[in-house]
DNA sequence: TTGCTTAATAAGAAAAATTACTCTTTACAA
DNA sequence: TTGTAAAGAGTAATTTTTCTTATTAAGCAA
């Protein structure tokens, strides 16, 4: 990988992500920053998010309702994702059994570098709303 | 959800996915079908893939190298994803402990409808290629 | 069966999200 | 200070979703 040079924009993007627990999207970052950095390009946000996740400084969560979401926490942990409102919540890690990774590596010859584990469903708020809608129909 | 009507295009899309184990992308499906169905629209492929996965007839795997991939197998199972070549491989299910789902549901009030579990890394072929590249540099 | 009704489906265009590319600016080492 | 390559802005291209209008599948009545 190429040398990584210091950059004001990247520092600011990272600071912003570190300060929130909302698992931001690229556009959220852009909207938050564009007043302070008027010349900021959305492409720059995307490029730096990609770079930061490749450097394992932040982490990709996955595409939720059409937008990639990111996570300041790189240590292994699971996520809950609400299918209705798009909420992302950190959960304590659900480690794949060490035996499982070992077996896959041996059987198929893989190098396993990481894992992602997401539960999907309805969050508490959306659960209530769905119940209301049922009653009304 | 709305009533689902029979449709020639959707049947053909589903048949195609059932016949392969390559975890296709929308564009792969489109490329395979466009000769047989000259008027086929890429939008139709996307709409039907979305609908089939909402009906739980196929399953979304996730975005890999910029493209969403799909899986004919809807029963719970894990995936291995190669970060270098984009290979997707089915693995036997790594069930989240029933206790884990139960605990999340109770603690946060979630309704957990499903889970996705992916191992990421290098497949056997890419492992060899990376080794070669190391030797050459 | 035949024709009518309606709502799902399709095509095509447009919008949105993301990535790639080109050219300019800038960080940093020699 | 200067040479270099990384980083940025802006634009274009790609992938995916959404919207509009026309078509068509399927239930119902005659």
Fill in the keyword field for this structure.
two-stranded antiparallel sheet, 5 strands, alpha+beta, Arc Repressor Mutant, subunit A, 137 residues, homodimer, Dna Ligase, domain 1, DNA-binding, 5 helices
Detailed description of the structure:
Two copies of one chain form a homodimer. Chain A is an alpha+beta fold and 137 residues long. The first copy, chain A, has two domains: 1-74, Winged helix-like DNA-binding domain superfamily/Winged helix DNA-binding domain (Arc Repressor Mutant, subunit A), CATH 1.10.10.10; 75-137, Ferric-uptake regulator, C-terminal dimerisarion domain (Dna Ligase, domain 1). Helices cover 41% and strands 23% of the residues of chain A. Chain A has five helices and five strands; from the N terminus they run H-H-H-E-E-E-E-H-E-H. Chain A has helices at 8-18, 26-33, 42-54, 98-108, 124-136, and strands at residues 59-64, 67-71, 78-82, 88-91, 111-122. In chain A, the strands form two sheets. Chain A has a three-stranded mixed beta sheet. Chain A has a two-stranded antiparallel ribbon with strand order 1-2. The first copy, chain A, starts with 7 loop residues before the first helix and ends with a helix. Chain A binds a DNA duplex (30 and 30 nucleotides) through helix 3.
Task: Describe the structure concisely for a colleague.
The structure is a homodimer of 137-residue chains. Chain A is built from five helices and five strands.
Largest interface: A-B, 32 and 32 residues
Cα end-to-end separation of chain A: 57 Å
CATH C-level name of the largest domain in chain A? Mainly Alpha
The CATH homologous superfamily of the largest domain in chain A is called: Winged helix-like DNA-binding domain superfamily/Winged helix DNA-binding domain
Find the CATH topology of the largest domain in chain A: Arc Repressor Mutant, subunit A
Radius of gyration of chain A (Å)? 18 Å
Q: Helix fraction of chain A? A: 40-55%
Biggest sheet record of chain A: 3 strands, mixed
Form type of chain A? flat
Regions with little confidence, pLDDT below 50 for 5+ residues of chain A: none
CATH architecture tag of the largest domain in chain A: Orthogonal Bundle
How confident is the prediction overall: mean pLDDT of chain A? 92
Number of strands of chain A: 5
Strand content of chain A: 15-25%
What is the chain-wise order of helices and strands of chain A? HHHEEEEHEH
């Amino acid at each position: 990988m190429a040398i990584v040079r210091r950059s004001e924009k990247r520092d600011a993007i990272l600071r912003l992500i570190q300060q929130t627990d909302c698992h931001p999207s690229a556009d959220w970052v852009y909207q938050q920053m564009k007043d302070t950095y008027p010349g900021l390009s959305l492409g720059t946000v995307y490029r730096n998010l990609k770079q930061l996740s490749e450097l394992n400084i932040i982490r990709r969560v996955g595409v939720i309702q059409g937008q990639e979401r990111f996570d300041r926490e790189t240590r292994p942990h699971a996520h809950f994702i609400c299918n209705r409102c798009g909420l992302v919540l950190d959960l304590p890690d659900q480690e794949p059994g060490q035996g499982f990774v070992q077996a896959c590596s041996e059987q198929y010859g893989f190098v396993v570098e990481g894992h992602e584990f997401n539960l999907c469903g309805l969050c508490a708020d959306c659960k209530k709303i769905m119940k209301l809608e049922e009653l009304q129909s």
